[in-house]
Amino acid sequence: MPISTPRTNYSVSTCLLLSIFFAIVSFAPAQQEPSKTAQSDQSSAGPANRTPPRQRSTKRGTSPRNAQISRIVAEINPRNIERTILRLVSFGTRNTLSEQNEPNRGIGAARDWIYSEFQKAAAESDGRMVVEKQTFEQPKAARVPQPTMLTNIVATLKGTQPESVNRVYVVSGHYDSMCTSPTDARCDAPGGNDDASGTAAVLEMARVMAKYKFEATIVFMTVAGEEQGLLGSTYFAETAKKNNLDIEAMFTNDIIGSSLGGNGVRDPHSVRVFSEGVPSNETQAEATTRRSVGGENDSASRQLARFIKETSERYVPSMKVWMIYRRDRYGRGGDHQPFLERGYAAVRFTEPNEDYRHQHQNVRVENGIQYGDLPQFDDFKYIANVARVNAAALAALASAPARPKTAVFPAGQSNDTQIKWDANKESDIAGYEIVWRDTTEPVWTHSRAVGNVSEYTMKGMSKDNYFFGVRAVDKSGNRSPASYPRPLPRRRTGTAPTESPAPPPN
Ligand SMILES: [Zn+2]
Questions:
Q1: d(Cα 185, Cα 425) in Å, to the nearest integer?
Q2: How far does the centroid of ligand 1 lie from the alpha carbon of residue 223, in Å?
Q3: What contacts 411, CB < 8 A, 6 or more positions away?
Q4: pLDDT for res 173
Q5: In Å, what is the CA distance from 105 to each residue of 100, 161, 162, 200?
Q6: For residues 175 and 233, what is the distance between their CA atoms, to the nearest angstrom?
Q7: Mean pLDDT in runs of 10 for the chain (506 residues)?
């Protein structure tokens, strides 16, 4: 889908992002559940038999549960999600090119209603949540026949820890809709699933989470122009990049509405999480390094998917996080892409089996088959469970320390594996864990607490044979996603450091 670069409306966008950055007026201590168990090494099923005996993790341990996350999961309510979806559908169409100033029909009516709902959520936040309209003029583009104003609704819940307030997590859905033709602004386009479901999930998370405190900042966002070529999300991501916003993760929720697929399979217990392996913004030099040392399965987005699986399945045990090792569905795209292209970790949430009769279709009955994206095909309890999966991971990310920065393997061949990283700056850091897995394992299978250090050596374990990562742990037991070490650039005498190592001699 062609994406044109939007013309910048600096007055609105700069204000918005600067406010995310700087409008932090007061800090309050984060409410964290005290850790009930000491940190312990964890070992789960995996290639332990290949691990040298003295390197095995000795104790099985469970991270302490964060009671705030359990409360958030419990408070998410399918009836609110149903109410939001029916209201969004009632606007007839939310096509990006539809009416902007009618009170009851078109995208403008939806925009204003969503804005007022976010404001209600913000009223419960003691001033920590700020809601803004990010409006810009989209120039003519493939699916935009004339310059059009687009508006993203952005609700920012400020973090409470000074060292973490500028660390941002974004959760998004798109509130625009389409019928068969993306430029038909008049047809009814209920968008009950695509993407009232994602919009409703984001709004419900904002309602529930605005009352709680998190160390880092969370942005709850609904964007326009997705069906026109990812326009709203592109504008947000581009503006964030220009302002050096530290977005540590972005989730898009798009088509999370139905547990029944066009293949007849009903699966209310799975949600697909798409994550790319090779970063969309990988440079040639990084590609050369990756070919030499591996890592095509260890991008920041893939680590994020692993974190979501590990975290959310604990807090929402009825749901399986089905990791899909692709950027998106086959040949298709979504609002996480503009973030990936700008170097931000991002994933997409989507129902397990789609029904194409109910996406991008004029509402009609043909040969006895109902076409159209009608809310009668939504499963509100399922959407609530997907929202819970999102919320558990988001809350865990925003409660945890940042992932360790600049994790590296020092140069040199050895049967031991040395890992170094920069010490985190949060005041409540307890220490770090090395995680590892066999090269064929999808998720981290082992972890070891190594104390509050910034380097560690795994004795007798070669980085040829395992993938390693390092994660930060705070005093309440909250864990960051894993950072995947890169090879430390080699220095050649008298020259600048090379960005990628020459392949070692055999
Ligand atoms: Zn969509």
A1: 50
A2: 11
A3: 487, 488, 490, 501
A4: 98
A5: 9, 42, 43, 18
A6: 11
A7: 41 50 38 35 42 41 80 98 98 98 98 98 98 98 97 98 98 98 97 98 98 98 98 98 98 98 97 98 96 96 98 98 98 97 98 97 97 98 98 98 96 93 98 98 97 98 97 97 90 46 42
Query: pTM for the full model?
Result: 0.88
CA 285 / ligand 1 centre spacing (Å) = 34
User: What's the gap in Å between 482 CA and the centre of ligand 1?
Assistant: 30
* Cα 254 to averaged position of ligand 1 atoms, centre (Å): 5
135 CA distance to ligand 1 centroid (A)?
Answer: 20
DSSP 219: E
Residues surrounding ion ligand 1 at CB below 5 Å: 194-195, 254
Environment class of 413 (CB within 10 Å of its CB; exposed 0-12, middle 13-18, buried 19+): exposed
For ligand 1, the distance from its centroid to the CA atom of residue 253, given in whole angstroms, is: 8
Instruction: Give the distance (Å) from ligand 1 centre to CA of residue 205.
Output: 19
Per-residue confidence (pLDDT) for residue 63, from 0 to 100:
64
Work out the angle between the directed axes of helices 380-399 and 300-315 (0-180°, nearest 10).
Answer: 110
What pLDDT was estimated at residue 16?
56
Cis peptide before 195 (omega within 30 of 0): yes
Distance, in Å, from the CA atom of 164 to the CA atom of 168, rounded to the nearest integer, reads 8
CA dist., res. 434 & res. 404, Å (int): 11
Distance CA 389, CA 309 (A): 9
Asked whether 451 and 432 are in contact (CB, 8 A), the reply is: yes
Q: Rounded CA gap, 313 and 63, in Å?
A: 13
Q: What is the pLDDT of residue 287?
A: 97
